[in-house]
Amino acid sequence: MKPFTYERAASPAAAAAAAAKSEDVKFIAGGTNLLDLMKLEIETPTHLIDVNGLAFDKIEPTADGGLRIGAMVRNTELAADARVRRDYGVLSRALLAGASGQLRNKATTAGNLLQRTRCPYFYDTNMACNKRKPGSGCSAIGGVTRSLAVIGASEACIATHPSDMAVAMRVLDAKVETVKPDGKTRSIPVADFHRLPGSAPERETALERGELITAVTLPKPAGGVHVYRKVRDRASYAFALVSVAAVIQRDGSGSVALGGVAHKPWRIEAAERELARGAKPTMDRLLDGARPTSDNRFKLALAERTLAAVLNEAKG
Fold first, then answer.
1. Most buried of 64, 80, 104, 107 (most Cβ within 10 A)?
2. What are the residues whose beta carbons fall under 8 Å from the beta carbon of 63, sequence distance 6 or more?
3. Which neighbouring-strand residues pair with 203?
4. Is residue 78's pLDDT more than 90?
5. 138 phi, psi to nearest 5 deg
């Protein structure tokens, strides 16, 4: 790990302003992903701003009947919150499907959204990776691609987003609240928060330099049956090969998002018109344009079967 300096943030705006001074400054909260990346010298910040003292640790009702989740709320606390379990069950289930209990005790809401990919070529510093070193190439293309993207990828990157929580946030139409270095705030729909790789896979979110996440808001509860189903190589601790987050209504309509298939949580709202007809027509629309490799073509069938299981579970 390379040497770095450290400070504790005094206020959200001050933290954002300080972070905007250099590309080599990082915020740190739970640190469950960042510290690993620093040990591997994939991330080499020269300065860390600790935001744990900014009191973003509350879960509060909003005026429109939704819920506002502070950026520093730990994954364990969020999954266990009675309001989340009752009204946003897909979120609670997705959180409990991710990581270990020890990691969930430290991991934060904002940090979960900002997780870096688990593409093995990103973590191997002897291999070319446009996400780790822009312009160096993508060793994953033509390499071992079993866990990588089947849709939304580019010639520069075929990595997937690893978060379970973000898939549930996408199906719930969450919004990400931030503060910029000039003190202005904004609310970003989670649909627009994560980017597809295009020619700049190192830019993973809509955040601007120095911009700090302060909270995530959920709309008022949509009702329905909430299901999160994750398929992985081992049940104890692994990232999703495919995951399905769904909120299904009594009449068969609903919303659905996929994890493990793209550079961001994958949802195509137009595909949801097919939900009442079943998993195959829905998945045909949802994964229209997919370009799997011979290693990960199985994900197409796996996603359809997982959605079928989710729809059966929703019927009770």
1. 107
2. none
3. none
4. yes
5. -130, 105
